[in-house]
């Protein structure tokens, strides 16, 4: 006999943990199924000897009053995990330059920096700031995007105001269009800076990142928003959400890989493999799926409406990632402005580098972890013969080390530990098809109203995660989970509202 519950949540990354904790706090009987032996997914950690490495995400957003993690923890009545604001959020090094562009936390300091770095670009930045203000206030009124039901539409319409309607004029524009509009289309240095920053958040360069999305992420490092460094490791965020789930009486089942979803009798049968490869079956009234949508056709085995299946197939492949995990004596590192840097680099691609802080729990005293990630097309890493795969991996590792030598002066002999994860490793770690990371990308054709909805055509199946609005990042996926849970509860006639935390709109007003 299959076990029964009100809601089964699939995948215990930040999205699935958030959804499960929210629904458990509503008094629903929730079972969260996770294939791995720990939660966290792309925002998890792993240990190697004395080192703790953050697998993917190394910075968090949404910790400011009104930010989604701040609101969620207030709702659960739990403290936010201990974290330090990053200042600068990142230092960007363009190829061939000897001075960094620092994304300072203080907005005025950032204005001074960008005026010095990119003279003549203030109209562009002023337009971005205006779009960001209206988008942020809009987001604070909890709209549902894209709308798929009368209730979704009501949430969307209630969140609109004249500024949002006006910024709607650029819904289909890209960041490069904004540059041209402001007379900065010929500023190649600014364009290189923007391409680097936007690829990090949207997988797309300036000429294919939606202007409204780009304007928001370009303001993410500055107060009153900002980026944070978690004390201990990134796992601290997942542990806090696990605590919220337990507090609500929900169950987390680790080592439970979901293999089949079948719609039956108004609910769902979830089948898969548990520990020691024992099969399990679970009957749930509702399903919240945080796995990438590319996983749905196999899980539903013909149970997807044709047009929906075709839509899923029509999305271009998301990126894969190469991630170098190293450890060094801290004295080998140059004096640094901040813990995060971006280096414009060609082989295997531009690097995003994160260095642990002394005493932050990731490395013994006097040592530091150094993580460098690069986006890469994922599929070509599969189907290679073992020898060819290893050659390619060594090449990529050498390319990343050369970049780190340029940026930090580290020689190969300086590493106390080093290893590289490829898309094959990410496929194994996260169960994501081809190790795809980063959702669908924020091209105007897939952004906001044109994106994939959390409400699906299958009754009782809701989606969240980095392919759902507002997209990738720990804060983005928590927001997507909040939307899916609101829709689920509304369908049950019991509206879900967050208690206690300020909304972003209220926080902006008070600032
Ligand atoms: C290299 C890299 C760097 C990043 N840097 C940052 C950063 O600095 N800041 C930031 O905010 N974001 C960053 N991100 C993005 C962020 O990590 C992700 O957007 C976010 O963590 C995704 O969360 P998720 O819950 O949607 O998916 P995931 O984290 O992928 O979680 C999905 C979970 O589902 C489980 N699962 C998969 N298949 C099954 C199955 N069949 N049955 C049961 N369970 C299953 C997986 O094991 C996993 O735990 C980065 C990502 C990468 C890859």
Cα end-to-end separation: 55 Å
Could you give a short account of the major beta sheet?
7 strands, mixed
- Gyration radius over CA: 22 Å
- Arithmetic mean pLDDT: 95
Task: Please estimate the helix content.
Answer: 25-40%
DSSP, total strands: 18
| Heterogens | flavin-adenine dinucleotide
Q: Unreliable runs, pLDDT <50, ≥5 residues?
A: none
Number of helices: 16
Shape: globular
Strand portion: 15-25%
Structural class: alpha/beta
Task: Summarize the model shown.
This protein is of the alpha/beta class and 511 residues long. It has helices at 14-25, 68-76, 107-117, 122-140, 150-159, 162-167, 175-181, 188-202, 211-217, 235-247, 296-300, 306-314, 386-408, 423-430, 474-491, 504-510; strands at 3-10, 30-33, 45-48, 51-54, 83-85, 91-93, 101-102, 228-230, 251-253, 257-264, 267-273, 279-289, 320-329, 340-343, 351-355, 367-376, 415-421, 461-463. Strands 1, 2, 9, 10, 11, 12 and 18 form a seven-stranded mixed sheet that branches.
Can you put this structure into words, describing what you see?
This protein is α/β, with parallel strands linked by helices. It contains 16 helices and 18 strands. The protein has helices spanning 14-25, 68-76, 107-117, 122-140, 150-159, 162-167, 175-181, 188-202, 211-217, 235-247, 296-300, 306-314, 386-408, 423-430, 474-491, 504-510; strands at 3-10, 30-33, 45-48, 51-54, 83-85, 91-93, 101-102, 228-230, 251-253, 257-264, 267-273, 279-289, 320-329, 340-343, 351-355, 367-376, 415-421, 461-463. The strands form four sheets. Strands 1, 2, 9, 10, 11, 12 and 18 form a seven-stranded mixed beta sheet that branches. A hairpin with a 7-residue loop joins strand 14 (340-343) and strand 15. Helix 1 runs parallel beside helix 15. Bound molecules: flavin-adenine dinucleotide (FAD). Residues 10-16, 33-36, 41-43, 56-61, 257-258, 290-291, 321, 323, 373, 430-432, 437, 465-466, 472-474, 477 line the site of flavin-adenine dinucleotide.
């Amino acid at each position: 006999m299959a076990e029964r519950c009100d809601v089964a949540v699939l995948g215990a990354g930040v999205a699935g943990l958030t959804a499960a904790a929210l629904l458990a706090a509503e008094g629903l009987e929730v079972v969260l199924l996770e294939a791995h032996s720990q939660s966290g997914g792309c925002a998890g950690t792993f240990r190697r000897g004395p080192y703790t490495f953050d697998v993917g995400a190394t910075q968090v957003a949404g910790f400011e009053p009104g930010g989604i993690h701040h609101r969620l923890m207030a709702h659960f009545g739990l403290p936010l995990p201990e974290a330090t604001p990053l200042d600068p959020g990142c230092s960007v090094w363009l190829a061939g330059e000897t001075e960094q562009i620092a994304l300072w936390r203080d907005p005025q300091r950032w204005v001074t920096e960008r005026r010095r770095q990119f003279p003549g670009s203030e109209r562009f930045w002023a337009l971005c700031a205006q779009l960001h203000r209206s988008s942020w206030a809009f987001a604070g009124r909890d709209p549902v995007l894209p709308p798929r039901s009368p209730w979704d539409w009501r949430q969307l319409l209630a969140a609109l105001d004249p500024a949002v309607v006006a910024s709607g004029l650029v819904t289909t524009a890209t960041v490069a269009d904004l540059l041209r509009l402001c007379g900065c289309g010929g500023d190649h240095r600014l364009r290189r800076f923007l391409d680097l920053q936007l690829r990090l958040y949207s997988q797309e360069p300036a000429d294919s990142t939606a202007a409204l999305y780009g304007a928001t992420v370009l303001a993410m490092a500055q107060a009153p928003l900002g980026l944070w460094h978690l004390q201990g490791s990134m796992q601290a965020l997942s542990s806090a959400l696990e605590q919220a789930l337990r507090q609500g009486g929900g169950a987390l089942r680790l080592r439970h890989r979901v293999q089949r979803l079948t719609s039956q009798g108004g609910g769902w049968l979830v089948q898969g493999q548990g520990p020691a490869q024992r099969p399990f079956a679970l009957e749930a009234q509702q399903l919240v799926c945080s796995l990438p949508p590319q996983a749905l056709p196999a899980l539903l085995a013909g149970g997807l409406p044709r047009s929906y299946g075709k839509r899923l197939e029509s999305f271009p492949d998301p990126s894969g990632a190469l991630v170098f995990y190293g450890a060094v004596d801290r004295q080998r590192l140059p004096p640094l402005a901040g813990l995060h840097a971006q280096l414009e680099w060609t082989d295997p691609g531009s690097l995003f580098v994160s260095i642990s802080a002394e005493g932050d729990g990731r490395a013994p005293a006097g040592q530091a972890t150094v993580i460098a990630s690069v986006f890469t097309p994922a599929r070509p890493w599969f189907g290679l013969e073992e020898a060819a795969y290893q050659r390619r991996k060594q090449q990529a590792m050498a390319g990343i080390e050369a970049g780190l030598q340029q940026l930090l002066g580290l020689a190969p002999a300086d590493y106390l530990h080093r290893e590289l994860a490829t898309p094959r490793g990410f496929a194994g770690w996260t169960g994501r098809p081809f190790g795809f990371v980063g959702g669908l990308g924020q091209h105007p054709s897939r952004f906001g109203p044109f994106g994939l909805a959390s409400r699906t055509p299958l009754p009782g199946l809701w989606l969240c995660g980095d392919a759902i609005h507002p997209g990738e990042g720990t804060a983005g996926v928590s927001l997507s989970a909040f939307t899916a849970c609101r829709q689920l509860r509304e369908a049950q006639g019991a509206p879900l509202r967050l208690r206690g935390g300020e909304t972003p709109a209220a926080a902006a007003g008070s600032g």
